[in-house]
Amino acid sequence: MKISTIANELNSLAYHGRGIMIGKSADGKKAVTAYFIMGRSENSRNRVFVAEGDAMRTKAYDESKMTDPHLIIYYPVRVLGNKTIVTNGDQTDTVYNLMDQQMTFEQALRTREFEDDKPNFTPRISGIIHRENGDMNYAMSILKSAEGDDSSCERFTYAYSNPVAGRAKFIHTYNGDGNPLPSFEGEPKTLELPDVDIDTLTDLIWSNLNADNKVSLFVRYIDIASGESETRIVNKNV
Prior knowledge:
CATH topology: Glutamine Phosphoribosylpyrophosphate, subunit 1, domain 1
Number of helices: 5
Strand order of the largest sheet: 1-12-11-2-3-13-14
Distance between the termini: 39 Å
CATH superfamily: Inosine monophosphate cyclohydrolase-like
Radius of gyration: 17 Å
Helix content: 10-25%
Strand content: 35-45%
Structural class: mainly beta
Largest sheet: 7 strands, mixed
Number of domains: 1
């Protein structure tokens, strides 16, 4: 298995699109997650992350320049009891609402598919952290078009029980720039999760995202035993 550093992985592409990292801290005490967005168009770049209780939403930085909120404004992060949901679209609400009705993460996402932004058909990427009995497990999902065919949806779910401390999995929407944008392929990547505090990790991720394309970053440390959390948000637009 290839294990990359966060710096090397983020510097491997100028455009990851949107990305989710989930893992367990090196000391085994915290669940760690990060979500970032990048943008090429003025509409995509005209965004900030805003905390709203234990949730987080996107918001237009300059409302007068927002041309189309579709696929741009949503809740990337919501918390349902001992579960933290992180996604790149309004499927956050789908997972939250259907899991609250006793459906599973995978079942909830079977009601959704990739985004309708032809010709890219951007994949919907999602993650969920579950704290239980003093430990954590998590899952990640990607819903993508089959070879760019908008009539065919491929669904992949990856579940991680008793995850290895000091490791994170990373999934993102695109395999680089292009027209149309090439979708992510393969399993989530394995990253080394350094033994650092939340501010150091936030700076590590933010400083290694492409300076022209990065827009916003969310990082959260969750104490596995107590559920107490720390959150950091960085916005390019300030």
